[in-house]
Amino acid sequence: MKSTTPEWRELLKLGLPAIAAQLAQMALGVIDTMMAGSVNAESLAAIAVGTNLLNPVQVFIMGIFLALNPMVAHLAGANQKDKISSLFQQGLLLAVLFAIPCIILLRNTADFMEMLDIQSSIIPLAHGYLTACTWGLVFFFGFLALRFCNEGLFSTKIVMVASLAALPFNVVCNYWFIWGGLGIPAMGAVGVGYATSLVWFVMFSCMLLHTAFAKRFADLNILSRWHGLDWPHLKEIFKIGLPMAVSVGMEVGIFAVVGLSIASYPIAIIAAHQIAMNIASLAFMVPLGLSIAITARVGFYAGANEPLGIRTAGYHGVWMALVFACFSALAMFTLPELLTGFYTKDPDVIAHATSLILLAAIFQLSDGTQVSMMGALRGVKDTQIPMIITVIAYWGIGFPLGYYLAEWQQMSAQGYWIGLIAGLSASALLLSVRFYRISKLPQTAPLS
User: Fewer CB within 10 Å, N or C, the chain?
Assistant: First the structure.
């Protein structure tokens, strides 16, 4: 897998399909929201509530599966191909094992929704949506396992293909199950859940077929020779993955809590926050996609015991993310009204959203840096210290500062967004220092 191609080109070759895959997967949620909204406001609200309960479960499990990328990349770099097939199989096994408790949890959320004082008319729809989604949860986890293993072998195009192929399928299935037809009754918001399960099955099937029949994997015997339980690999997956699950949860959690805190403000501010966050999330998909490529490249060099390669891949990745961040920040600084205008024509909402988009522009550099450095540190299997860093940055600095400015200094949503800037900046700085310390050492093992 070694190449004489410049590192930035290797990262771009891996990163562009990963970016496209991230955007496609984000588009799936946008399609669900738009099509549910075409039914009625209750259906839209039910999807929103259901998604907010489903996402933390998905994100936490995804964090554990992220360990597969650097583990596979290390084995590839060390030319230990005979061990790679076992990692693929352990990932599929964990997909089944993780799905069981998650299905039980998500099918018993009605009482929890009542505790949250959610409108009674929404609860049956949200619960029905979640129950429908659980039929495909094992396929979603299986997709994640195969995805991160493939990405560890620099195979990112198939993830893009599977994600893009799911888009038209999602539209057709949503329409079919929402409005009914061909023997299927109209199910409204609940139908979106069944469509989602089918989409997950399609994405998993694409990954499974590629993994089983791709010529480049023929000598790996990924699915032709089964290893059974591999306790050393399972132990390493949890050792690396659990801290990453917490780290990802910390970041997702602060944005979720900020959103819930802002939900008590006037409607115009809530809408403005949603618009600005959507724009920032779209921009984030680019450095997030690059971080996947960074993890694979750094992991490969770590497995090959090439410290110079580790540094080169890590720093090339962060500079590429920063170049894009400069463009996205420039667009947000110069065209905030235009960007907001794609979402609403309400002048009050536009005014509030514009001020938040300007703040989003400020944290583009920090956000690009922190996700790139996190990807590089994953590549050398360094996850425990980054977990501590994210806890301190987001919950020790970001949220307390945001809460103080918003609630005590009456800065409203802007106060929370300033807190986000502080948290992301602290995370970017500390993670950069961490990677600098590790990458300057001759050994590839993380510091303790």
Answer: C
Domain of residue 394 covers: 244-448
Give the list of residues 6+ apart from residue 341 with CB closer than 8 angstroms, or none: 350
pTM of the predicted model as reported, rounded to 2 decimal places: 0.83
Segments in the chain below pLDDT 70: 1-5, 33-34, 37-41, 44, 116-119, 227, 263, 441-448
Tell which of 198, 229, 260 closes a domain: 229
Say what the pLDDT of residue 447 is: 40
Residue 349 in domain: yes
Query: At 298, which amino acid appears?
Result: V
Spatial CA neighbour of 150 closest among 310, 7, 17: 17
- Residue 331 structure tokens: 């667009």
Report residue 199 as tokens: 């989409």
Same domain, 211 and 336: no
Cα separation of 235 and 231, whole Å? Answer: 6
Model confidence over 100-154: pLDDT tens digits? 999 999 998 887 777 766 667 778 888 888 999 999 999 999 999 999 888 888 8
Phi, psi of 444 (to 5 degrees): -100, -10
CA angle 142, 159, 152 (to 5 degrees): 80
Whether residues 145 and 288 fall in one domain? no
Residues linked to residue 181 through DSSP beta bridges, in sequence order: 184
| Confidence (pLDDT) at 444 | 45
Q: For residues 52 and 54, give the distance between their C-alpha atoms in angstroms, rounded to a whole number.
A: 6
